[in-house]
Design a protein that fits this description.
The chain is an alpha+beta fold. The chain contains three helices and ten strands; from the N terminus they run E-H-E-E-E-E-E-H-E-E-H-E-E. The chain folds into two domains: 111 residues, Alpha-Beta Plaits, CATH 3.30.70.1660; 67 residues, Double Stranded RNA Binding Domain (2-Layer Sandwich), CATH 3.30.160. Strands 2-3-1-5-4-9-10 form a seven-stranded mixed sheet.
């Protein structure tokens, strides 16, 4: 599961809450694999942290509230700082040779009698995605197979890039979406203590 903690458009206090929440989750669930992080304005603050975990943290999806006087602006009246916790879709793994189906067929058109008698055309189907590439340009079946595989690999690379862009776009959308109110968890004070009486149940 990929989780993103984000300060959205919030100030440094929200960015500090991102860092504190991540450290709290590490203590709660063990080591978390950081995939990306964007540093905030102040030292030790993060605009967003994206990480992978084997634990099911779906109950954390939503808004987390930190109630604390600003550690950066001593006379600031605001005490409520919100961060967003979102589940980001995983990338689908693509490839493995055994997932290809290779089809041979007779080439039509120019090329003389040899073309009509021998199956030189090659079509390769990537079974999981349904992507297809074929080659009839070369005179030998081996060369056509290589050419078709090159074409298919380009298509698969394009699909992989498209998925990465979708994941980044999803992460960006979540980064800018913070719903203030009805938090799934509430933490209080500079020590970031969980207030269990005001927090939704994790069941």
């Amino acid at each position: 599961m990929i989780i993103q903690i984000s300060a959205g458009q919030g100030p440094s206090e929200c960015q500090l809450a991102v860092a504190k929440l991540f450290e709290t989750l590490k203590k709660e669930y063990g080591e978390l694999e950081i995939l990306s992080e964007t540093k905030g304005y102040e030292k030790g603050c993060f605009d967003s942290i994206r990480f992978r975990t084997e634990h099911d943290l779906s109950s954390l999806e939503g808004t987390v509230l930190w109630i604390c006087r600003s550690p950066f602006r001593k006379n600031h009246k605001r005490k409520n700082w919100y961060v967003d916790v979102s589940i980001i879709p995983e990338l689908t793994e693509i490839a493995a040779d055994k997932e290809y189906r290779i089809e041979k067929f007779h080439c039509g058109g120019k090329g003389g009698q040899n073309v009509n008698k021998v199956e030189t055309g090659v079509r390769i189907v990537h079974i999981p995605t349904g992507l297809v590439a074929q080659s009839t340009e070369e005179r030998s079946q081996f060369q056509n197979k290589q050419r078709a595989m090159e074409k298919l690999q380009k298509k698969l690379a394009g699909l992989q890039q498209e998925q990465k862009e979708k994941q980044v776009n999803a992460a960006w959308r979540e980064h800018n979406r913070i719903v203030r109110g009805n938090p799934v968890r509430i933490y209080e004070g500079e020590k970031f203590i969980l207030n269990k009486s005001k927090t939704k149940n994790d069941d």
